[in-house]
Amino acid sequence: MTLAWPEIIETARPERLGTVSQVLGLGVDVRGLTCAVGDMVTIAGGIDAEVVATSNGQLRCMPLTPMTGITVGDAVHSNGRPLSVPTGPALLGRVLDGLGRPIDGKGPLTDAPRVTLDHQPPSVMGRNRIATPLTLGVRALDTLTTTGVGQRLGLFAGSGVGKSSLMSMIARGTDAQVSVIALVGERGREVREFIEDDLGPEGLARSVVVVSTSDQPAMARLRASFVATRIAEAFRDDGFDAMLMMDSLTRVAMAQREIGLSAGEPPATRGYPPSTFSVLAQLLERAGTDVAGSITGLYTVLVDGDDHNEPIADAARSILDGHIVLDRSLAVTGHYPAIDVLGSISRVAGKITSAGQRARATSLRTVLAARREASDLIDVGAYQPGANPRVDAAVANERGISEFLTQSIDDVVTAEESWRQLDRLVSTFGGV
């Protein structure tokens, strides 16, 4: 085979290597290379790292794998390009790590096209408006917090309240064509349990799962969120309506906090550097509708100490198009999913439901609100029947309301059936 002169010159060009000048905290400083932020480098012949900052001829790199064995003076090779990941239908039913590499033992993804993680969010004027409801398969959500195709919702809860279980119900019950599930910072023990028990073979067959466990480096955890988002974007670009579920957005923020502090950023709100909040905005804005397809985003937010006003929860709520709140007091009574329907809201529900549907949902909400306001009187036996028709309706139909709002993890209900069940429930309220 004869090579052209440009190829000969490129082949004969000497390779420039850098050296490790310092290993400190979570980062590695490299001298002797010229790279851009986001480029990949290889340290000591096999440890992949990403450039996160540059200054005065020195690169600050964050390894994507454990740093064991790195020492000052090690050779560093520049890959000359950023991280790329596989995309396309070949990924359905597969489990990938935070860098887009298969970890399910089903072989390499040789035929899947690869793309870099960089991708522009849809144009603000080019986005299609959210006008179609999306079935999630959960009664309380499809009727009282109706979600639209291309909407971005936050699932806010403390630890152990049922976020992962609710996600698995949605993954199996949604009518989205494709699901991309990112498990960021999860306990390693729970990954197979989620895939095999909660998601199941049927759910996995139309899903792509991206996993980065809590023991992996911060850069690998952060990149897992962008890998999953980029895979979902590729499906959207091909005209699919994709569901992107990320558990959890809080652990993505924690990973960025580790990276930012290690790179020299000053700590700000509760120790989070300023870059944390800009990264959240960049990540969340990439979901949504586009000209052809859509990404409906569902992001879990782990509220610290059940404080729903902590910085990450507050920032996420301001960006997202609605929020679902899980209440620990409901969970401890066996009320699953533990959705606080009065504290949950969909900002697009008014645009994707009919006037009749909104009236029925409002009727149930007002009865629940009246019951909550009178709960102290009812609990001590001081409430007098007839004082408030809505409280009377709530007390008389307490069992029916509870059966409507609770649902087995294996029970998948269509949106049409959910609305019919709500109709039957509201008809027992006597027009209050």
Outline:
Helices cover 37% and strands 22% of the residues. The chain has 432 residues and is α/β, with parallel strands linked by helices.
What does this 3D model show about the protein?
By secondary structure, this protein is an alpha/beta fold. Helix content is 37%, strand content 22%. The protein has 15 helices and 17 strands. The strands form 3 sheets. Strands 8, 10, 11, 12, 13, 14, 15, 16 and 17 form a 9-stranded mixed sheet that branches. Strands 1-2-5-4-3-6 form a 6-stranded antiparallel β-barrel. Strands 7-9 form a two-stranded antiparallel sheet. Helix 5 packs across helix 6 and helix 11 packs across helix 15. The protein starts with a helix and ends in a 6-residue tail after the last helix. The mean pLDDT is 90.
Q: Total strand count, please?
A: 17
Shape category: elongated
Helix content: 25-40%
If you average the pLDDT, what whole number results?
Answer: 90
Please give the largest β-sheet: 9 strands, mixed
Number of helical segments with 4 or more residues? 15
Strand content: 15-25%
Structural class: alpha/beta
Distance between the termini: 84 Å
Q: Show unreliable segments.
A: none
**CA-atom Rg in angstroms:** 25 Å
List keywords for this structure.
six-stranded antiparallel beta barrel, 432 residues, alpha/beta
